[in-house]
Amino acid sequence: MDRIEQLKKALEKDPNNPLGLYGLALELYKQGLYEDAIIYFKKYLSLYEDQGAAYRTLAQCYINIGDIEQAIETYERGIEKARKYNHPTMVEEFKQEIERLKTMI
C-alpha cells in the first residue's frame, strides 16, 4: 500500500484529521497530482485556517495547473488569515508572490 492509499484509509476513519488531510494533500502535491491536492488543501484550510504553508502550497498547485488568478486569490485569502493570526512576515511574503504572479497574467 503506497503512502497516498495509507492516508486515504486513515481519513476514512477520521475524515477531519488535520495531519491526515494535510499529509494527503502534500503527498498528492509531491507526486504532481495537483488537482487532487487542491481538493484536500481546500478541505484542510476550511477546518484549520491558520496554516500559511498550506495556502502557499495550494497557490503553487494552482500555478502548476496554469490557474494564476486562483493562485492570486489563494494568496489573498492567506494574507487575510495571516493578518488575523498575526503573521506579518507571511503577509509580506504573500504580497510579494501576488506581485510576481501579476506579471504572469
From TrEMBL:
UniProt repeat feature TPR, residue ranges: 52-85
InterPro entries: TPR-like_helical_dom_sf, TPR_rpt, Ycf3/AcsC/BcsC/TPR_MFPF
Entry keyword set: Repeat, TPR repeat
UniProt keyword Repeat present: yes
Top-rank taxon: Bacteria
SUPFAM superfamilies: TPR-like (SSF48452)
Protein's name according to its UniProt entry: Tetratricopeptide repeat domain protein
Upper lineage: Bacteria, Pseudomonadati, Aquificota, Aquificia, Aquificales
